[in-house]
Specification:
Two copies of one chain form a homodimer.
Chain A: E1 2-8, H1 10-13, H2 20-31, E2 35-42, H3 46-59, E3 62-66, H4 77-84, E4 89-91, H5 93-105, H6 112-115, E5 119-121, E6 125-127, E7 136-141, E8 144-149, H7 153-169, E9 175-184, H8 188-194, H9 196-200, E10 206-212, E11 215-224, H10 227-245, E12 249-251, H11 257-267, E13 272-276, H12 282-287, E14 297-303, H13 306-313, H14 317-323, H15 328-342, E15 346-352, E16 367-374, E17 377-384, H16 390-408
Parallel strand pairs in A: 1-2, 1-3, 3-8, 13-14, 13-15
Antiparallel strand pairs in A: 4-5, 6-7, 7-8, 9-11, 9-12, 10-11, 15-16, 16-17
Helix pairs in contact in A: 3-4, 11-16
């Protein structure tokens, strides 16, 4: 069923808040098999809200709105929905009782404009609000449905899960199943080129590529009569995709690279330590972002100055002098020193030129060396990045470190 | 000028990414004096993109689009904009040269679909993309303007600031001048309450508060005939604001706290080192994000395990045993140890409970101790955070560390 999401609220147009409701509803509706075709946002203006609902119904059979259900004067979604779907507002006694009970329970005074919230479209199916005062509702006319929910994310998500999902399930026939395939080391256009035959001949499952800071993703989705059929179709396509770009895939379940690496470290009960120069602690920060990693991650040394590299890791002055801080030799002495002080199973080092300054013809900005000791294995990988920006170089260096660990444990 | 923002991308309709472009552009356009009336999002479908642009032009004179400018088949914003505004696509030699140079510089192979990115509407004003391959452009017909930018936020924001803002400034008559006042240690509703008299009686300059992860901002804006008049009005209001909330202000020029701290460290030529437990390297990563900080930042120790705290910093086993890793005593021994090994002018340590697990009635999740040695001064600050999430706790702990340094150097 073709669906539109309409967000009502002037604060959104001012950019004062990020519209998280829309991303949440889009995910949920897609999972339920609805085709989200449009997102609209308008301010608290009855004409524009009405115009948007009418517009949405031109192409869609279902419109979900958030916002504009509160007790104040500028809350007008209810009145507008009534007008567009030809209904009238009536006081609903059971809703008023509910509201009165809510205020009593929370020890709050009920004002006249709160009572206004019990006025509902006469044909509406009302949805209770467990986390606030504004009830939601669904209204139908000639096969066109509108579902109106409050704007605060906590109220909206609760109402959606508890009341709206059961309502919507009755409306949809098909089931959508999809997997997000995550890749590192291949660009979006390379990925598309590699999969061109599969993408061009797609009907179901469909394939779509997405670029994400330094990595890219592939979405394989199928819409079938049952979950089983859709799942089987997706998995069959995934097998074909694997044959072509399997080397670049690090997750088939939309896990981040850091999550994959941390999960493996924890499962294998491996300890890990890091010695960073150009990334300045970002690798350690990324790992320690994952709850439960304290069993694996022991210590991280941010040896930014040459003195710190010598002091903390025993890098030799001659090495720094002869080969420079950004060199295979330094990266290897860093990781060897780290192994000696930490004794961890997995030790990783990185040194590079993050930019914007500090580059040279031999060692341009974006060049990094990553040292790794993993069990018996010791290696150093040279990565020349595209040098988009200091931020990007550092980010991509961390991804490269995670990728190197992922491929070696 | 009435303005609409159109986001193009099926991934947005799937809810795979949050639309941060729209919130960014809404803020920026409002600051420039444009009235944002609508946000629209559609998938990569030429008919629907065209329909939305036509719809937007009914009520608005300016439409900004993001997305759909990439090299792949489903990138079609350019073609659609051309159709709607009656222009044709031509290969632009200077754009092709730019692109070729970009690929050469980055050592990447240029594919045929990349060349397609040099094809532009013949009447377009082209905007260079400093952070990627897809150029943007502006196109006009009968007083209706469209500005098309790439979708990746990093590319879009750079292009917007560098090329689109100067273009838009020429379109507006009044001059808007504003300052963003950045505060730490005060919540948004506290801030609003403190400034209520000033906010309620505002006509020009206007005051608006914004909440931002762990901090809040105040925008003082004035719209006048000349830049000088607007600036004088804003600065006069700023003086009043300072009298009320001066203690919480760390920047009047929208600088991040980390930028303020790094600028001061560099100006004063102070060296700095960090010893982190719960923040796991985030403090070091934040500092080293600032170009040129290598003269000040010497080293960071991420002593996550107790062994690391003892090994690297000489924290005593008895201290850890008696007071626990999260304690004033441990924070102080960490920073004392750091001073001994690094000799830096400013030494800072942090230990706390980031959560979600690991809390206790005495030491709940969100409790951190921050140790600081700064010249002759040595102190420890206890911060009990609201415990929103692990991510938030770690983020807020880093802000608290920066704030402590800012107030003591």
């Amino acid at each position: 069923m073709k669906t539109a999401i309409l967000s009502v609220g002037t604060e959104l147009l001012f950019g004062q808040i990020t519209n998280t409701n829309t991303v949440y509803l889009s995910q949920q509706l897609n999972l339920l098999g609805f085709d989200v075709m449009y997102h609209y946002t308008v301010g608290d203006n009855p004409e524009r809200v009405a115009e948007m609902i009418r517009l949405a119904f031109k192409d869609c059979d279902l419109v979900l709105t958030t916002g504009g259900l509160g007790p104040t004067q500028d809350d007008l979604t209810k009145e507008v929905a009534c007008r567009v779907l030809g209904d009238e507002l009536v006081m609903m006694d059971d809703v008023l009782e509910d509201l009165t009970a809510y205020f009593r329970k929370n020890g709050r005074q009920m004002t006249d404009n709160n009572k206004k919230q019990a006025i509902m479209p006469s044909r509406a199916k009302v949805f209770r609000n467990d986390a606030g005062t504004a009830p939601g509702f669904a209204l139908q006319k000639d096969g066109k449905y509108i579902v109106c929910m409050p704007g605060p994310p906590r109220e909206m998500t609760r109402m959606f899960q508890k009341n709206v999902v059961p309502f919507l399930r009755k409306m949809s026939d098909d089931v959508i199943y999809y997997r997000m395939i995550r890749c590192f080391g291949i660009g979006e256009s390379q990925l598309e080129t590699a999969l061109l035959d599969l993408i061009d001949n797609q009907t179901d499952p469909t394939l779509a590529t997405y670029a994400k800071e330094g990595e890219c993703s592939l979405r394989i989705a199928s819409k079938r009569g049952t979950q089983e059929e859709a799942k089987a179709a997706v998995d069959e396509m995934l097998a074909k995709v694997r044959e072509i770009i399997g080397d670049y895939i690090y997750s088939c379940d939309d896990e981040d690279l850091v999550q994959v690496v941390c999960r493996k470290l924890m499962e294998k009960k491996l300890t890990v330590a890091s010695a960073e120069s150009c990334t300045g602690g970002m690798f350690a920060a990324a790992l320690t972002d994952v709850p439960g990693i304290s069993g694996s991650f022991q210590r991280g040394l941010v040896t930014y100055s040459n003195e710190a590299k010598m002091d903390e890791l025993g890098v030799r002055a001659e090495t720094l002098e002869k080969y420079g801080a950004v060199s295979e030799e330094t990266a290897l002495e860093m990781v060897e020193g780290l192994k000696a002080v930490s004794g961890c199973d997995v030790c990783i080092s990185v040194t590079g030129v993050a930019g914007p300054g500090g580059g040279s013809p031999e060692k341009p900005v974006g060049l990094v060396y990553i040292g790794l000791i993993c069990g018996e294995r010791k290696l150093c990988k040279r990565v020349q990045m595209r040098n988009v920006s200091r931020k990007w170089n550092r980010h991509y260096a961390v991804l490269s470190m995670l990728d190197l660990i992922n491929k070696n444990i």
